[in-house]
From TrEMBL:
Any matching Pfam family: Nitroreductase
MF term (GO), any: oxidoreductase activity
Keyword Oxidoreductase: yes
Ranges of residues in domain Nitroreductase: 8-183
Family: Belongs to the nitroreductase family.
Claim: Oxidoreductase is one of the keywords in the record: yes
Protein name: Putative NAD(P)H nitroreductase MhqN
Gene3D superfamilies, sorted: NADH Oxidase
Lineage: Bacteria, Bacillati, Bacillota, Bacilli, Bacillales
Source superkingdom: Bacteria
InterPro entries attached to this UniProt entry: Nitroreductase, Nitroreductase-like
Keyword tags: Oxidoreductase
Length: 207
């Protein structure tokens, strides 16, 4: 089995974590350094990770969602999607211009095209883009975490309004999901859930 295959197969959504395990800033940074290779539309990198390690804040989040793994996790991470990521299109591409890879005309055209697409399609598209791009990033984050020896669980069982208030999340950001991270308490692991055979979720050349 390739390393990638075994990584994919070994990732599980942790049901609970071992209590009192700390994750350091440098361990988290190693994971983010891999997760940044996720693709994003126009390379706009819509995703922002808000990491909560502070025990008081973590307990406030636990109180608002009552999922025990929030309490036992080493950190709780809010995966946010920036609806207005397109506004940084020039900043993201100007380095390529300074390196001579993009001419000034190409840079200006990129800014005009990307801005035109997002503003032309409007707020609902901006919201979809925030969710779509942050979701792809989150999957890579979870695989990167597993590769570095950490277990995760993606979570939607929380009140986004309460989380927004506790963590003072600015209006332009969608709270796409929560990811808890820690060392899984293996005695609480559930059997892997049923997966549909390919024939039930793949079709070729039409539905
Ligand atoms: C968007 C999303 C939200 C989820 N929310 C929760 C949650 O709130 N609590 C929880 O315990 N698991 C949650 N899960 C985990 C799923 O239950 C889990 O991925 C699924 O049962 C498959 O198990 P596996 O990831 O171990 O293969 C969520 C998963 C996803 C993708």
């Amino acid at each position: 089995m390739s390393e990638f295959t075994s990584l994919v197969k070994s990732r599980r959504s942790a049901n609970n974590y071992m209590e009192g395990v700390e994750i350091t800033r440098s361990e988290l940074e190693e994971i983010f350094t891999l997760a940044k290779y996720a693709p994003s539309a126009f390379n706009l990198q819509h995703t922002h990770y808000l990491v909560v390690t502070d025990p008081v804040l973590k307990e406030k989040i636990y109180e608002s969602c009552k999922q025990y793994k929030v309490h036992s996790a080493s950190a709780v991470i809010l995966v946010l999607g920036n609806r207005y990521a397109y506004q940084a299109v020039e900043k993201i591409n100007e380095g390529m211009h300074h390196l001579g890879i993009l001419s000034k005309q190409e840079l200006d055209r990129t800014v005009e095209t990307v801005t035109g697409i997002y503003e032309g399609k409007g707020e609902s598209f901006m919201k979809e883009e925030a969710i779509r791009n942050a979701s792809l990033s989150a999957m890579l984050f979870m695989l990167s975490a597993k590769d570095k020896g950490w277990d995760t669980c993606p979570m939607i069982g929380f009140d986004p309004g309460a989380i927004k208030e506790i963590l003072e999340i600015p209006d332009g950001y969608e709270t796409v999901m929560m990811i808890t991270i820690g060392k899984e308490k293996l005695s609480s692991q559930r059997p892997r859930g049923y997966r549909k055979p390919n024939g039930e979720f793949v079709s070729y050349n039409g539905m």
